[in-house]
Amino acid sequence: MSNGDSDDYPLMESPVSKFMVMQPQKESLMAQVTYPSYWQKKDNSGQWYWIYYAKNGEEISRSSESYIDRNDCTHSITLMKNSSADQIWYTV
Length: 92
Prior knowledge:
By secondary structure, the chain is of the alpha+beta class. It has one domain: YegP-like (Double Stranded RNA Binding Domain, 2-Layer Sandwich). 17% of the residues lie in helices and 24% in strands. The chain has helices at residues 29-32, 70-81; strands at 11-13, 20-22, 37-42, 48-53, 59-62. The strands form 2 sheets. The protein has a 3-stranded antiparallel β-sheet, with helices on one face. The chain has a two-stranded antiparallel ribbon with strand order 1-2. Residues 1-17 have low confidence and may be disordered.
């Protein structure tokens, strides 16, 4: 991610703390992205959802619902990040 000095991808502080929004001005945005990472996007109805990309850049997870408010989408990411110590259940 750019440090904000580049004219190619100026960073803007997001209204959601700890997130930076990249405002692409050229086509090489993906070259600036590091993985693993979460992406927040809008669906066709204008609601927010997230996608989690693995270290190899492959999509491995996405939110099960869309959110009207981006803060709710961000909260969902936080819940996922904080669940790493939760138990895993399975059936045989």
